[in-house]
Amino acid sequence: MKWNWGTGLVVAMALFMGFILYLVITMSTDSKFDYDLVTEEYYAKEVVYQKEIDAETNTNSLKEKIVFESSEDGLKLIFPETFEASKMKGNVYLYRPSNQVLDFNVPLELEGSVLLVNHKNLIDGRWNIIIDWEYEGTPYMYKKSFTY
Fold this sequence. Notes:
Order of helices and strands: HHHEEEEEEE
Organism: Bizionia paragorgiae
CATH topology of the largest domain: Immunoglobulin-like
Radius of gyration: 25 Å
Transmembrane segments: 6-25
CATH architecture of the largest domain: Sandwich
Number of strands: 7
Protein name: FixH protein
Number of domains: 2
Pfam families: FixH (PF05751)
Strand content: 25-35%
Strand order of the largest sheet: 4-3-6-7
Structural class: alpha+beta
Largest sheet: 4 strands, antiparallel
Keywords: Membrane, Transmembrane, Transmembrane helix
Distance between the termini: 67 Å
Shape: elongated
Helix content: 25-40%
């Protein structure tokens, strides 16, 4: 067989296609390239997005804001004192964008106006927090990213 430019072109294209196939198969089957969505029920959450926008607007209109403090016991979330703790119902969701296994929920049970998240549940690094609560029929939602 004579080696000419046509044969070289076919061999080069076959090698390139083989390389691309190798990359696709490797990326599809190797677990180190496996990434999850941020939340499991992404599309179901998208449907109720307007309610979240309204709740965040209610939170932004508050005169006093939620304050974060780091202490020896953990993370303190200090709510405005205008809220009565007994009338607040809600949930605090902490999730780690880099590791879904570390995500957890804490029910909103205040002592005075403070909620303590135990430091045993938090490891150093970036966290996202969503505080979703209702007070006297008005929904509120607070979202923040922080580094612990």
